[in-house]
Design brief:
The protein is α/β, with parallel strands linked by helices and about 450 residues long. The protein contains 18 helices and 18 strands.
Length: about 450
């Protein structure tokens, strides 16, 4: 039952108001002065307090400040016999929910009580969600005990409490966003927004509008002003995934944000300011992209102040059993089934696979298996075709495929007369992808 405390030195009014509120189904607590009111508050923790402004041992306006400092989620409604603007302003400034005059505003008391209670309940739900976020994204909940992974976790934990820019590097699907979320949730910015954006998912024009916002009329279809993510995330963290895909013009604008927190909306001439922490991620070798002229060196040095390499799954196979059990449990909950156990044969098949898609691929593979599985134990028969191949041949097949790809690239380059831009067009890949392939094959 929700509790309401009434602090008033007039016994008749205190009792009358108490009976009215009790008829609404609330537990009513009574106090005659500041001292007994604070004692009752600490003992019973009511949700809402009605408090007189003039009390024998103090002033209700000042008491609001004391109450809100100790219990910010308790709402206080001040009652006064003679309302005046200065007291009303001071009361609201000190955190009062409302300030009403006895007699004149009696019909407002019950509606105000319910509105104040709604605010209390909302604040509690927010706190519960924040606690769940803290638990869900805590470093302690990140699964991994292999040396390479523990080294990455240690670096992330050390940098989390700072405002330093972080660059997470590693292959696609290794869990870089999990690291970014944990860093944010362990930082002083945890109560502000965490916004993730995949730089590869937008064209240059759309990404600029997403990041910085735009003014109405800035381009065709811009019918009204739009807030950008840097404005939405003010005080919080922006996670820029696949930052290596960002166009050169946007790289220069991002550099300005990193240097002094300034940016321009699309179509705007007035500079805006923001205070965000930037965590970036890439699956590319940005040093090679700099050498190829595709990424700004000055931006790299700003985002890579603290670089954390996230290892691929094939380098942390010791973590496979724990990860597999985790994803089995999640997948079973998702479809409303009991969690099956993992057979030795199923586990062996996982261990012999090369995991090009890393942890993300493992999650998807296990979800598929849980859906297909019909017994209490996961069977290798539920795995996709690549897992059923003879493990002894897998490395040989990969090498053969790599050699075929290398020959094809050389043939297309020869056909393009050595022009890499034209070769990339003929291959149907980005120029940066071609450079990465050439580097990996030592060409």
């Amino acid at each position: 039952m929700d509790k309401v405390l009434i602090i008033d030195d007039e016994e008749k009014l205190r009792s009358l108001l108490g009976r009215i509120i009790a008829l609404e189904g609330f537990e009513v607590l009574l106090a005659a002065d500041c001292k007994s009111g604070l004692q009752t508050l600490e003992k019973h923790l009511p949700e809402v307090i009605f408090c007189d402004v003039k009390l024998p041992d103090g002033n209700g306006v000042d008491l609001v400040k004391t109450i809100k400092q100790a219990h910010p989620n308790v709402e206080v409604i001040l009652l006064t016999a003679f309302g005046n603007i200065p007291d009303g302003v001071a009361a609201i400034k000190n955190g009062a929910f409302d300030y009403i005059t006895k007699g004149d505003d009696n019909n407002r008391i019950i509606p105000l009580l319910y509105r104040a209670l709604e605010k209390v309940q909302l604040a509690r739900r927010v706190q519960q969600l924040e606690r769940r976020l803290d638990e869900h994204f805590a470093f302690e909940n990140i699964i991994g005990k292999s040396p390479a992974y523990l080294a990455a976790l240690s670096l992330a934990q050390k940098v989390a409490a700072t405002d330093t820019a972080v660059l997470l590097s590693g292959e696609t699907g290794t869990g870089k966003e999990v690291f970014a979320q944990a860093i944010h949730q362990s930082s002083p910015r945890k109560h502000k927004a965490f916004i993730a954006v995949n730089c590869a998912a937008f064209s240059k024009e759309l990404l600029e509008s997403e990041l910085f916002g735009h003014k109405a009329g800035a381009f065709t279809g811009a019918l009204k002003d739009k807030k950008g993510l840097f404005e939405e995330a003010n005080g919080g963290t922006i996670f820029l995934d696949e930052i290596g895909e960002m166009a050169a013009e946007l790289q220069a604008k991002l550099l300005r944000v990193l240097e002094n927190g300034e940016y321009l909306k699309v179509g705007e001439t007035k500079v805006a300011k923001t205070d965000v922490r930037i965590i970036a991620a890439t699956n590319r070798q940005l040093e090679a992209e700099i050498a190829a002229g595709h990424f700004r060196a000055d931006l790299f040095y700003r985002i890579a102040v603290f670089q954390i390499p996230v290892p691929p799954l094939r380098e942390r196979l010791d973590d496979l059993p724990d990860l597999a059990r985790h994803f089995v449990r999640i997948s079973a909950q998702k479809i409303g089934r009991p969690s099956p156990t993992i057979s030795a044969a199923y586990h062996e098949a996982l261990q012999h696979y090369h995991w090009p898609g890393n942890v993300r691929e493992l999650k998807n593979v296990i979800e598929r298996s849980v859906i297909l599985n019909e017994g209490p134990t996961l069977s290798p028969d539920t795995l996709p075709h690549p897992f059923k191949q003879n493990p002894a041949h897998s490395n040989t097949e990969l090498l053969e495929l790599a050699e075929l790809e290398k020959r094809h690239i050389l043939q297309v380059l020869d056909r393009a007369g050595g022009n890499k831009t034209e070769a990339a067009r003929l291959l149907g890949v980005a120029i940066t992808t071609l450079y990465r392939k050439l580097e990996s094959y030592g060409l």
